[in-house]
Design brief:
The protein is mainly β. The chain has one helix and six strands. The strands form three sheets. A two-stranded antiparallel ribbon has the order 1-2. It has a two-stranded antiparallel sheet with strand order 3-4. A hairpin with a 2-residue loop joins strand 1 and strand 2.
């Protein structure tokens, strides 16, 4: 995945995340595949993509990528 000048890579089943090809770090959970969709921990948005996560009144989660 690329976001502007940010490069990241994730691997199913491995709790290792990369930012711009620097040493991997853990987010406490590995990416998972469910119905052909890959899911990563919510912290991926803030720590890797530098975005914001907010739970709105309906209980849904709003993600804003800067």
């Amino acid at each position: 995945m690329n976001k502007g000048a940010v490069f990241t890579s994730v691997t199913l089943g491995k709790d290792q995340y990369f930012i711009n090809k620097v040493a991997p770090f853990s987010l406490g959970a590995a990416p998972e595949l469910n119905n052909k969709n890959m899911y990563v921990p919510a912290e991926f948005v803030s720590k890797v993509l530098h975005g914001d996560i907010e739970q709105i009144d309906t209980g849904a989660i709003k993600v804003t990528i800067k």
